[in-house]
Amino acid sequence: MALSDELRDRILQSVDDGFDAQLAYTKKLVNLPSLRGQEHAIQDLVFREFQSRGMKVDRFDMDRDAIMAHPGGSPFSEHHSDAPIVVGIHHPRNETGRSLILNAHLDVVPEGPHEMWSDAPFSGEIKDGWMYGRGGADMKAGSAANLAALDALRRIGLQPAATVYVQSVVEEESTGNGSLMTYLRGYTADAALIPEPTGNRLVRANVGVLWFQLKVQGVPVHVSDMGEGANAIDAAYGVIGALRRLEEKWNAEKGDHPHFEDAGHPINLNIGKIAGGDWASSVPSWCTIDCRVSIYPGTSAADVAQQVRDCVADHARNDAFLANNPPEVVVNGFHAEGFVLEPGSDAEDVLGAAHEAAFGAPMEAAMLPGYIDTRVYALYNQIPALCYGPISRNVHGFDEAVDLESLRRITKTMTLFIAEWCGTEAVA
Amino acid sequence: MALSDELRDRILQSVDDGFDAQLAYTKKLVNLPSLRGQEHAIQDLVFREFQSRGMKVDRFDMDRDAIMAHPGGSPFSEHHSDAPIVVGIHHPRNETGRSLILNAHLDVVPEGPHEMWSDAPFSGEIKDGWMYGRGGADMKAGSAANLAALDALRRIGLQPAATVYVQSVVEEESTGNGSLMTYLRGYTADAALIPEPTGNRLVRANVGVLWFQLKVQGVPVHVSDMGEGANAIDAAYGVIGALRRLEEKWNAEKGDHPHFEDAGHPINLNIGKIAGGDWASSVPSWCTIDCRVSIYPGTSAADVAQQVRDCVADHARNDAFLANNPPEVVVNGFHAEGFVLEPGSDAEDVLGAAHEAAFGAPMEAAMLPGYIDTRVYALYNQIPALCYGPISRNVHGFDEAVDLESLRRITKTMTLFIAEWCGTEAVA
């Protein structure tokens, strides 16, 4: 049942009316440096926001055993967050519409060297229509938009006529265990929407992601006898070369994967972090490399992990240092499959109509080459899982920013989508 | 004036008689983890040992300005030790012999991962004729031997008939500024002896050493757009490749350098330490590499530093990431020239005779491809600078150890050398 023109216009106006408050709340979220393991304060803030809106709130810890027993669960390293998951629950007076999950993560990746930022990394400053700060685009703007959309309905005396779960999770940047935990807790709905910064587009297909740590450790020869490749740092670099060849093999197979044929380089191996050695004048005995690689939908993380282990073992057998010191491959984070959002769902149709009303142009869909929690809802809840959000700049980089005009229109799309998907009823 | 057979035999016996006490003291030194900047306690222990033997003791800090103004001074990084230098001074009643500097350093390099050691890294345990522990060979055994040689003379009622400076320094493993400071303080003598673990051989020629840190930092492309070489860690490895080519050029020139022609690979570039990136799923924006490279005698450290800078700049111009983010080369430690001990000095002759008496075989001389403080005395004091000490295993590695039978004989050589070089007089 499409929205009336009158209701549509009231909703669009209501989002505009609430936008300053929405930005103030977004900035408040950005100001909190919610790095991995440091999301306690921000999750408590969200808990109070949910309560203050009259929602019931379910706050729970991650169940390590249940997560580890699930094929989509990622390992718990020493760095795993123990911040709680918070779910705000809206129940209508009359359950007449389709239920919905609105999800957002509040963990952010490290901000890196501060001197690389134009302003303080968690400033939330607005300049020329962009809000700057680590985590602003990815995805505190989305987290705030989830609430802002419900607030926009309430401002005109309406609320969803179906159950809505507003899920605030952590561990999206390292394992995906937070959203997986909402599934394991038993939450489900008729559709899920995650407003990650997708550039105003819907995610049609999405890679899985594997994290692994390569640990090279062993007894090197003495510095006075050393030649090239005879130490752990040189040896680790050799392993990277072998992994890059595996990466190229995977990219050469892109034609076999619908929605990936036209991507230039869909599978990326990122050598994200490295540490090795103790002293400039000692031959390094150890080197540890943190890697992230993407995975085509339909390929399991376990399979890719095995391919990585085989690649490393094959290389090591022919390396002077590594043959005697075989490197270890430790999966220490993401162990997640990708997904494809099959076209033609009602949820996508409703979102597309809402987008067109907000933007005056048809919604585009595209492949996203990074991890998103939508995979939990697509693969395990098996419901339409929509990832759709604003335009961003420099996500995971310096001067991360979100485009505020885009955010305004995305919030309009979201509010229209909720109103049509869930239906509306008068606030009591 | 050669020693009488009778005096020689009494000296050899006296070293044997004191050897248990010498080992106990050596173990005490090994037990103190005197890493860079953490040599305060051990230098105070040595101060008291000097005092208890009736020496005058001069304890002084390094003069940063004087060191930096000297061409052999190395930069003071944030890690530079502020432990004092301690010089014990023996004055004879009648100054009839030739004066001598006995030098040793007490700073040690990091022990690395403890699980790579068979025993605790600072145990000082003795097994099968070897004493184990970080810094035992390099060079606490030598430091203890300096005192043990004087103790051996005293045990038979003798003392050197010339001024002897026993210098206990730090910063030998990172800058060489400690021994340089003794020169700048004004200390000099007719010869210097440093019992580094040289395998019972005299050091004929010795490389200089340059430390530099390569700092790669800049804005990488986004992970979804990245290709090989487009991040700071990949880019840093590219620079290492360029530096390895420079290293090979230097090694190809070994025929031009007397005492280096027959060495397999006299110039070693060690990539000793690496750190970069913040997060597996973020493209790394920075990577820092700590390098050490050796230098032929006669080539200045400043010249080699310039060659390194030119090499890095040339490479950077042709690299996708580095052309926009030129790496920095920071000399942050050793900036030291090598030296050649020209054959034919009286000091070498006297040491050779002493060695033959202790070992029953002629002393051999060899090139040493690592830094030693002897360069200060050779290049700046311009006195015969003898580096000669025991057999070792795994210096800068795991299970570092010193051969105790070798140490006993080295101590005998040293005591005989002191007796003949300085002459002896009865203790008052």
UniProtKB/TrEMBL annotation, chains A, B:
Cofactors that this protein relies on: Co(2+); Zn(2+)
Domain annotation Peptidase M20 dimerisation: ranges: 205-319
Keywords: Cobalt, Hydrolase, Metal-binding, Zinc
UniProt KW Transferase keyword: no
SUPFAM superfamilies listed in its UniProt record: Bacterial exopeptidase dimerisation domain, Zn-dependent exopeptidases
Gene Ontology MF terms: acetylornithine deacetylase activity; metal ion binding
Source organism, top-level taxon: Bacteria
Enzyme Commission identifier(s): 3.5.1.16
InterPro entries in alphabetical order: ArgE/DapE, Bact_exopeptidase_dim_dom, Peptidase_M20, Peptidase_M20_dimer, Peptidase_M20A, YodQ-like
Stated family: Belongs to the peptidase M20A family.
Protein name as it appears in the record: Acetylornithine deacetylase
Annotated organism of origin: Pelagivirga sediminicola
